């Protein structure tokens, strides 16, 4: 069939279904009449095509003659059939039957397909006659239509056709017969459906047809089909095994569950895995004992599959065995059991994990801490905190700290601080610090966090004290700042250095006075530079007023000695918007190392200042343009200069 080109407007209209629906809510009769008029006019084919599409959404019996008239049009027949198939009126079926008897070739095939799509039982007699034509393509289409329509009359016609089918037409007739068999099954006519399937299986048909026939036969036989399903499971035909496995998942009934349970122990491991998965999907707890036995007697793959199925069942009777596998030496089965414990749907799994936490086996206790974390068992957090303090095994203590990091809250902070202050191994100390930082990061009451952290400083040795100071730096409230400030005079040099560096990297302007003093008075050149940089950084914060920012920039400018700090100063000035800041930025326009940054800062300030102090802007923008910034910055400078003038 020759089709017209897909014009952009048409393509957009066809692809954007939502737009079509929005534009074409069911119209009044007058609107439908307008659409019909388009079909009956000399409109271009693309306009008529989209009109057919719209009538599929809103057409009535009135549109049938106009659409039917296009069934003989090589370009528009398929579009007309789209419109007709969607109209719920018997007039459509009559029009299609009439056209089917008159059209030839591909146009006739299209109409036959539409008759099948509409399940037109009145077309069965004519379609049955077409099965005898000599042209195989013209036999396949009516056969398919009869299969879609279904019913006893269609079944008889297809059965007769099978007796005279050729190698070319046999597949199409068989597929149609099987589709009809599915209709009969849906109508409760199981014996008739089974007879069709048995007949197809007795013929030399392609593999996929035999597989479909077997599937329908098992379904049609109902309970009597269960032995046939089990037989396919045990066969050497992978296709039939696949059919049986699909039905093992889909067909309901305790009888099938019982049969699968009995069969699974007789199958090779590869097939056992598939059947076990089906048993788990059936959610029948009666299979639990068999699955438990398979975790012990089967291969690793069978054990893993059984573990997964037991988890789907959610039977608490399986928990002891899952725990046993989960704490076994590292293996794929142990990992599967651990994942099963995490996903286990019953609350009793939480209790099982908690019981593991007091096991005599350190490995079991480690596994318990991990499972409690992965299950997010918050009720077990106090027990985990106790184990983190008291367990005899360092690895278990570290594992419990990792769980506290994930689940702990404000009540657990004191316990973790206590662990850190005890000066444990490096691994435990790092785990404790990580836990403190993460727990504090989740809290909204920063003052309460700081209070618990500060309480541990007095008794802490230098290393844990430094760790506590690092966490306090992350908390960054007033109490934390006071504690870090005090630690700068600690007797231990490492503590002093840690506290000083943390102060230099403080995140709020509250540290500005301390940073200014340190930048002016520190005997350590490194700390002087770090403090000055920190002072400039907090001065550029969003919580700093313009007046305060300018004052801080002036203080810093008097101490700046290197271009690295001048670069930071220019960045802070760029967020200002007053004449003094502009003048300060302009002082660096002649510095080759800072020219680009000075130009950027000057233009940024000028853009904020141009309305309130155009004279200052004019003076400095001339210097900026003379310095020769990049093209984009030159455009900005010229624009602000033009506005100022």
Describe what this molecule looks like in 3D.
By secondary structure, the chain is mainly alpha-helical. Among the domains are: 221-342, Leucine-rich Repeat Variant, CATH 1.25.10.10; 517-645. The chain is 73% helix and 0% strand. It has 40 helices and no strands. It has helices at 8-15, 17-23, 29-39, 45-58, 64-68, 77-85, 90-102, 105-117, 124-130, 136-149, 152-163, 170-186, 190-201, 207-221, 226-233, 238-250, 254-264, 269-282, 288-297, 300-313, 319-326, 332-343, 348-356, 362-375, 381-390, 394-407, 410-421, 426-442, 446-455, 462-475, 478-487, 493-504, 512-521, 525-539, 546-557, 563-573, 579-586, 595-609, 614-627, 631-644. Helix 16 (238-250) runs parallel beside helix 18 (269-282). Mean pLDDT is 91; it is low at 1-27.
